[in-house]
């Protein structure tokens, strides 16, 4: 029901068919909702107008919220599985590097996940990220900030004289 802002009256006294409850045993009452004389043997309080109590917006919001929660849970589980696999592969990589260093493929070796402590590894990786764009900068160019002489300066084309002799 949509109330008017003038005297609090209803703008419409009907609802679309999609608002009808499928759980009700009576036919759906869509029109003349507020007129008790229009419906025979109908107790408005007990039968609750056989309409859904929540609106379409709330029903859709609840439905899509449930879908998004299940998708979010699935993504979280997949991410945790990938993190577990990544950790295992890192451990295997370092163990295999130690086997190669020892030179005996049949020997036992130790593996690790981080070579240094967590703080040292984070600082090392942060420095790598900071220096990513610096490889394209030219810091030691000998021609930067070198004063030029008057003879090296360009002469505008209208002032240049060219003597042609044959």
From TrEMBL:
<keyword id="KW-0812">Transmembrane</keyword>
<protein>
    <recommendedName>
        <fullName>Photoreceptor outer segment membrane glycoprotein 2</fullName>
    </recommendedName>
</protein>
<keyword id="KW-1133">Transmembrane helix</keyword>
<keyword id="KW-0472">Membrane</keyword>
<feature type="transmembrane region" description="Helical">
    <location>
        <begin position="71"/>
        <end position="92"/>
    </location>
</feature>
<dbReference type="InterPro" id="IPR000830">
    <property type="entry name" value="Peripherin/rom-1"/>
</dbReference>
<dbReference type="InterPro" id="IPR020559">
    <property type="entry name" value="PRibGlycinamide_synth_CS"/>
</dbReference>
